[in-house]
Amino acid sequence: MDEQLKQTPLCGRHEALKALMAPFGGWNMPIQYEGIIAEHAWCRAKASLFDICHMGEFLFEGDFAAGGLEDVFTFSVATIPVGRSRYGFLLNESGGIIDDLIVFRLAPDKAMIVVNAATAPRDFAVIGARLKGGAFTDISAATGKLDIQGPLSRDVMAAAFGAGIAAIPYFRFTTMNLFGVEAIVSRTGYTGELGYEIFIPSDKVVELWDQLLLDERVKPAGLGARDVLRLEVGYSLYGSDIDEATTPLEAGLEGFVDLSKNFVGKEALLRQKEQGVARRKVAFEVNSRRSPRHHYELCFSGEGVGTVTSGVFSPMLGCGIGLGFVRPDLATIGTPLTIIHERVSMEATVCELPFYRGGSLRS
Amino acid sequence: MSIYFTKEHEWVRVKEGIGAVGISEHAAHELGDITFVELPAMGKVVKQFDMLGAIESVKAASDIFSPVSGKVVKINEALNDAPEIVNESAEDAGWLTWIEIADEAELKNLMTREQYDEYLKTI
């Protein structure tokens, strides 16, 4: 194992559960416990617990406009009501995505920024360099994060921590006392199911993990199941589907870009909007159980027209599904594509997102 | 009935000139949840260690190589709809094909169960 790999406070718990561990974004993370398909099914039916301590958290305190935070992301931070969160991007000058992230408005002059693990150090440097004032701190090491996701997660949370949890609407959060410390409980997630992301000081995260697993409706799930779950609802994964060479316009994520405000990369996006994108994200379903995989070639009428960026067998749909980029004229729903890799060839059709529509997300 | 293994983790169980072929329990465990099996066409003639088919799990796609030369005389069609049988019973109900063995002398190129178990300790 790479000695540089970081580990979360729950590493001992994962090993005790005999999880299969693997490097992810510089961390030694649990990929699966009993098995990816079983964990996926449990999350869609009950409630699953994910160790997400590897993700990065930053804190900004100060005046958002004067401190420069307002111009850092593709969305306005100042207009997020206190107690709500917003998803969007940190872009480079060319409009490429440095990271996708969520900002939590903790107070009128305080925001928490939650970023991907692998990109966290660079994100912190880039954001820090763009700020003109305020206090900006990396609280990743001190912050633990657990996600509980699944149709029963509300009942589980209410049973463990009180009925007040049931009142939190989608994309809002509350601060509450758990184990004698202040925690943030947010109605967000990445699986298409009803669920919560819980931020708690990292020295309390083992206690929280143990408490939630006492409930027999809850089982741990690894990053393998998480990837199947997120792809079934069509969410982009940073590093696979989006990266610094991809703009939100190409990725079909312009809904998270507010072109009426200033941000780094806006000029490039406006130019791209005027000239038209050279490639566009598509979702596709395969006509068999075969899985498309990252870097497989997408072809139309025998001609290479793009690349698969994510793909998996969907247990909910019973077929292969994937995301990729193609020539914009082929991004229409119903377009037949052939996916080629070495001697493998599979037929697929461009489809709408999400792939799986039965999730409890907004229940 | 004797069972033999390849270094690529296929097995062949031989009875009266016919070899039932599959992947080892070790391989099925390493692959994780199997989601797709590409079986060869009936009647296909293969050489020892040539490509026979493919197997996919949530995690990875792998080629399957034939442990013996011969002709494919039966395929396990149950795997088309239920490839998870390979996880549940890799060395029994999760067989992939039957091959009419062309030359039993080739079996000496394979490992016995004991040799395979020793081999697994080295990888």
Describe the structure in your own words.
The complex is a heterodimer of chains A (363) and B (123). In chain A, the strands form 4 sheets. A 6-stranded mixed sheet of chain A has the order 10-11-12-9-3-13, with helices on both faces. Chain A has a 6-stranded antiparallel beta barrel with strand order 14-17-16-15-18-19. A 5-stranded antiparallel sheet of chain A has the order 5-6-7-4-8, covered by helices on one side. In chain A, helix 2 crosses helix 6. Helices cover 18% and strands 34% of the residues of chain A. Chain B is of the alpha+beta class and 123 residues long. In chain B, 20% of the residues lie in helices and 39% in strands. Chain B has 4 helices and 10 strands. Chain B has a 7-stranded antiparallel sheet. The model of chain B has no long low-confidence stretch (mean pLDDT 97). Chains A and B meet through helix 2 of A and strand 4 and strand 6 of B. Chain A: Keywords: Aminotransferase, Transferase. Chain A: This is aminomethyltransferase. Chain A: It catalyses: N(6)-[(R)-S(8)-aminomethyldihydrolipoyl]-L-lysyl-[protein] + (6S)-5,6,7,8-tetrahydrofolate = N(6)-[(R)-dihydrolipoyl]-L-lysyl-[protein] + (6R)-5,10-methylene-5,6,7,8-tetrahydrofolate + NH4(+).
